[in-house]
Amino acid sequence: PYWRCYYSNTDAVIYVVDSCDRDRIGISKSELVAMLEEEELRKAILVVFANKQDMEQAMTPSEMANALGLPALKDRKWQIFKTSATKGTGLDEAMEW
């Protein structure tokens, strides 16, 4: 894929997921798994933005972590953060991590 041109010398991956889109969380998981299997990203930490947390129908970060298979990532440092891009909440905390 096109994204591979950005993989070399990457220390962290920031993955933004729509917390309200339950229909496409499986696609998000597939894309994430495929990306993390790339050799150049083997040592990169993973930061997941569980975005749209200001919406009532949003999945919780725990639900999202499970749906994305994050607990199975035993050899990778990762963290998921509640974010709202429109309100700016959670972004500073995530970037400081």
Automatic annotation (TrEMBL):
Binding residues for GTP: N51, K52, Q53, D54
Molecular function GO terms recorded: GTP binding; GTPase activity
Membrane-crossing residue ranges in chain numbering: none
Alphabetical UniProt keywords: GTP-binding, Nucleotide-binding
PANTHER family (alphabetical): ADP RIBOSYLATION FACTOR-RELATED (PTHR11711)
UniProt protein name: ADP-ribosylation factor-like protein 1
